[in-house]
Amino acid sequence: MDRPLFIPVLLGSSRAERKSGNVAQFVISQIQAKKIQSELLDVRTMGLPFYEEEHEKLPAAKQWSETMQRADGLIVVSPEYNHSFPGVLKNTLDYLYDEYLHKPIGIVGTSCSQMGGVRMIEQLRLVAIELHMVPIRHAVYFGEMGKKFDENGKLLDEAYIERVDKMLDELLWYARVLKKGREET
């Protein structure tokens, strides 16, 4: 029997005051509502030091590799810092290469401004292509983060349910097709 799809969510900020954690939890709940396996991968707790040449010896790098080997795609939730994505996210992505091959990536941007991380998403798509991932067209932009969730992490703007579902539908289509392609080659 086919193994069910597994789509982890990578939270790309390690800042203590980050607001993107609520978004990542919301995205995971939407994935699980579609009966797809998921888990949160948090750059803050993954334990990956600044990239090391002999990273294969690091338990945290091995665990990250094993997770992405199992994964059928990836969703990154990240804020935009200075018109790009956080360095800790780039460091995390740089630990792997073959594990990403022919897997779709969905990107969810967050920002305190109205733009919702649009420049971060543009730049991360370019990096994903270089990693041989397939960045999907639909992204989700969470602008004005202070107004999107209440103090308990409950989503206040239900328009995001449809936006995330649209992204997930596209990502899951690619995940199924690319999984079959990887299995056949």
Would you give an account of this structure?
Strands 1, 2, 3, 4, 5 and 6 form a 6-stranded parallel beta sheet that branches. The protein is an alpha/beta fold and 185 residues long. The protein has helices at 21-33, 59-70, 87-94, 118-130, 159-184; strands spanning 9-11, 40-42, 74-79, 104-110, 134-135, 140-142.
Descriptive terms for the model:
single chain; 185 residues; alpha/beta; Rossmann fold; 6-stranded parallel sheet; 5 helices; 39% helix
Outline type: globular
Radius of gyration: 16 Å
What's the CATH C level? Alpha Beta
- How many domains comprise the coordinates? 1
Helix vs. strand class: alpha/beta
List unreliable stretches of 5+ residues. Answer: none
Mean pLDDT: 94
CATH architectural type: 3-Layer(aba) Sandwich
The CATH superfamily appears as Flavodoxin domain
H-E string = EHEHEHEHEEH
- Tell me the helix content: 25-40%
Give a short overview:
The protein has 185 residues and is an alpha/beta fold. It has 5 helices and 6 strands, in the order E-H-E-H-E-H-E-H-E-E-H. The model has no long low-confidence stretch (mean pLDDT 94).
Indicate the topology.
Elements: E1 9-11, H1 21-33, E2 40-42, H2 59-70, E3 74-79, H3 87-94, E4 104-110, H4 118-130, E5 134-135, E6 140-142, H5 159-184
Parallel strand pairs: 1-2, 1-3, 3-4, 4-5, 4-6
